[in-house]
Design goal:
heterodimer; A: 573 residues; alpha+beta; 9-stranded mixed β-sheet; 17 helices; 12% strand; B: 216 residues; mainly alpha; two-stranded antiparallel sheet; elongated; Cytochrome B (chain B)
Chain lengths: 573, 216
């Protein structure tokens, strides 16, 4: 209630503010009558206001009526300028969000995280690859992540989140700029589609308040360079999912948008893969009250199971202080027909055919028949998976990263991020993850992960253009400004991605047997006793005792029989 | 003293025995499912049946305990050493030689000393072990927040399963011993009909006759 009230207030204010300059321009001296001076200008100021005969709109402002948004616009920044003429504080709010800074201060671990700082198991690092990576930045023109984005409100991309025309997009190599007329030959959008010239005026006039799932999804569903590559539980299947793929987002289910759970305040969104809400931070609040946490319990409480059988429900509720909701209710990820990348081996990248041309192989067929790359000279070997069983770990939501320049042990699998949490502690739950298996370059002398320069046509070093690891790593390390021995090899890595989307209908949740069975899903998990997962010591001793009793009785009986026969035999004799 | 066919097992006594048999068998079956010894029944259904039957059995035990103490029936189960050697010797040796069972049942003492000791151990040790560990297991949700909750759960689970197998072993021996002497049917019949041959003093015989509890 408070949220929507604030929103309405904001819009009313925006409308009033928007009308003031128009009123000032319209009220020329000729048109100002001497009598009734107050009433007429107000009427003129409201000349665009809808009347009772008009259809009632969802929002209090119809942006297609604003002169500021008529265009023409030569760039995204010009649209933002027009937005700022009314929404004076909007850019400043955005510039204080992780969407803008790509920087996250984890107070608990003291680490500075965020895309601008950390490394991942996909394309490795943003530094030196900016214009490609920052194509999904919520701003325009971030060409050097070694420096923060400049404090320039007009560089905020309002449209990427608020466009409702459906034709606004960002080109995949312009540091966040949209493709404009004339579009370069072969240009692609951030979703990998052939780019089209965006009509900025149409987009500007279409804007609406809460971002729709396509606004979020056009970046977040395509992380890591393609549909569902990165997360595993965020794919284009969620634009219009059937109920069994996502019970919350399906039009046949709750028809949620992303923002229904990821509530926002001053353009900052709740929910984080650095510090995930595995428990509800506000357990004292009643279910269904306004929440500021993207936790299941915010709506469902921590005893959500009810009938039909109260005993079963009570037993299931017994689990909620140990097992996260997601663990049972997301039985597998990458559902809905879009595979996720599960293994990425960079060490094989760079091979060329006999003509010196790059090689591609498409060895994986997705359930919709689409062929996916399993080898590319640019990127190495991949594996893909659909309906993937998650990796389970105790988690308190706290991720600690292996940051650049942190010493690694190359004889072990390097965990790009380590999952925090303690078995059995009140702040921890057994939580599902996508465990990304990687093979990544590192500096053999210094034992640090290596920055790679993969993107940069014409720069002479980019791996994706020149297929030469030596040059790519040297360029990446130099660009990042860190020492590089020049000697590299590849190390196995794991990277963990919390699985929390694609919640299945209750009927599809895991069954007791999924874990309570020998070789069940919790088999490798320490710190938890799962009844039924093994014949325990008591069971083994007990079985031995039982068998001895059985054998004892049988032996005793057999001896009696033998003696009876002897006796009978004696009689006959 | 002469042997007479007297009603020794009252209706409640028989109901107690046979519903105990039924529920313990169900508990064995569902418990074995939960332990992973067989796949019949879904896990959730096994939990449900195991829980409901166990609670019902506990209720029955509460009634039975009350009944044993109000009727003085508990005295049947008090262990004693008198005759222990003879009975032990019989099972270990005499039974193979075709000897007669050395114990003669009386109305006050249906059980031979070995039997009484076994029942005493069952009631005083195994049954409490199974129901105390069972209730602790069942109420896990109320105490799992304690330090080392999962560790204690594992201890309790092991203890519960061990106690269950001890009871199962008792059942094996209990049923086997019914085959000794006058035979299985002869031994089971009293617990069905209620009547058994016991030695009666003339006074007792007169008393039971008056009550209509003597068959012959």
């Amino acid at each position: 209630m408070t949220q929507s009230a604030l929103r309405i207030t904001a819009f009313v204010s925006a409308v009033i503010l928007g009308q003031l300059p128009a009123y000032a321009q319209d009220a020329t001296p000729e048109e100002t009558p001497a009598i009734g001076a107050q009433s007429t200008p107000v009427a003129q100021g409201a000349s665009k206001a809808a009347h009772m005969s008009d259809p009632v709109k969802e929002l209090t402002a119809d942006h297609s009526k604003f002169d500021q948004l008529k265009g023409p616009f030569a760039s995204g920044s010009e649209v933002t300028e027009a937005c700022l003429s009314c929404h004076t504080e909007a850019s400043n709010q955005v510039m204080h969000s992780v969407h803008w800074t790509w920087e996250y201060q984890n107070e608990a671990t003291g680490q500075t995280l965020g895309k601008a700082h950390e490394m991942n198991a996909f394309c490795g690092n943003v530094a030196s690859n900016e214009v490609r990576c920052t194509s999904c930045h919520t701003g325009y023109g971030w060409t050097d992540v070694r420096e923060p984005m400049p404090d320039d409100p007009t560089k905020v991309d309002c449209l990427v989140c608020h466009d409702k025309s459906g034709q606004y997009t960002k080109q995949d190599n312009l540091a966040g700029e949209p493709p404009l007329d004339p579009v370069a030959a072969g240009a692609k959008t951030i979703t990998g589609a052939a780019a089209w010239p965006v009509d900025l005026a149409e987009a500007a006039q279409s804007v609406g308040a809460p971002p729709g799932r396509d606004n979020c999804g056009n970046c977040h569903f395509y992380g890591g360079g393609g549909d569902n590559v990165k997360h595993g539980d965020l794919s284009s299947a969620l634009f219009n999912p059937p109920r069994d793929v996502d019970v919350h987002m399906s039009p046949d289910g709750q028809n949620f948008t992303c923002e229904t759970c990821h509530v926002s305040d001053k353009h900052v969104f709740e929910g984080s893969r650095y510090e995930t809400d595995v428990i509800d931070p506000h357990p004292d609040r009643m279910a269904g009250t306004a929440h500021d946490a993207a936790a299941c319990q915010s709506c469902h409480t921590d005893s959500p199971h009810e009938g039909p059988n109260p005993l079963i429900a009570a037993k299931l509720n017994d689990h909620t202080d140990t097992v996260a909701c997601q663990t049972c209710h997301i039985p597998s990820f990458a559902r809905g027909g879009v595979a996720t990348k599960t293994v990425w081996d960079w060490s094989t990248a760079g091979k060329l055919d006999e003509n010196g041309k790059p090689i591609t192989e498409e060895g994986f067929t997705q359930s919709d028949g689409k062929h996916l790359h399993t080898y590319m000279s640019k990127k190495g070997d991949f594996e893909w998976g659909e309906n993937v069983t998650p990796y389970y770990a105790w988690s308190n939501g706290e991720m600690t990263f292996t940051l650049p320049e942190e010493e690694i042990d190359p004889t072990q699998v390097v965990e790009i991020n380590k999952i925090g949490g303690t078995p059995g502690q009140p702040d921890s739950r057994i939580f599902p993850f996508k465990r990304m298996v990687g093979t990544q370059a590192y500096d053999v002398q210094r034992n640090v992960l290596a920055y790679n320069n993969v993107y940069g046509p014409g720069n002479g070093t980019a791996l994706w253009s020149y297929y030469d690891w030596e040059k790519s790593l040297k360029a990446g390390m130099d660009y990042a400004g860190v020492e590089y021995s020049g000697e590299f090899d590849f190390v196995h890595t794991y990277m963990y991605w919390p699985i929390t989307h694609m919640v299945a209908p209750a009927d599809d949740a895991l069954q007791c047997e999924s874990c309570h069975a020998q070789g069940g899903r919790m088999a490798d998990l320490a710190g938890i006793y799962v009844p039924g997962s093994e014949i325990n010591l008591g069971g083994k001793l007990g079985l031995a005792m039982f068998l001895m009793a059985l054998l004892g009785a049988l032996g005793h009986g057999a001896l009696r029989l033998i003696n009876r026969c002897k006796k009978n035999g004696g009689h006959h004799g | 003293m002469a042997e007479h066919c007297v009603k020794v097992y009252s209706r409640f006594n028989r109901l107690w025995h046979w519903s105990q048999v039924g529920s313990i068998m169900l508990l064995f079956f569902t418990g074995a499912r939960l332990l992973g010894l067989h796949p019949i029944l879904p896990f959730g259904a096994a939990v449900l049946i195991h829980t409901v039957v166990a609670l019902a059995l506990l209720l029955l035990w509460a009634f039975a305990t009350f009944w044993l103490f109000t009727t003085g029936g508990y005295k049947q189960f008090i262990p004693r050493m008198q005759g222990m050697w003879e009975v032990s010797r019989f099972y270990a040796y005499g039974v193979f030689k075709g000897e007669e069972h050395p114990y003669v049942k009386s109305y006050e003492r249906r059980h031979n000393p070995l039997q009484a000791a076994a029942y005493f151990a069952l009631k005083m040790m195994l049954f409490p072990a199974i129901w105390i560990s069972g209730l602790a297991y069942l109420s896990y949700g109320f105490w799992d927040h304690l330090d080392g909750g999962s560790f204690w759960l594992e201890i309790i689970a092991n203890f519960h399963v061990l106690a269950a197998f001890a009871i199962a072993s008792f059942v094996v021996v209990h049923v086997y011993l019914l085959t000794i002497g006058h035979g299985f049917r002869q031994h089971v019949r009293p617990m069905v009909s209620g009547y058994e041959k016991v030695d009666l003093t003339p006074e007792a015989e007169a008393y039971f006759r008056q009550q209509g509890r003597v068959l012959d």
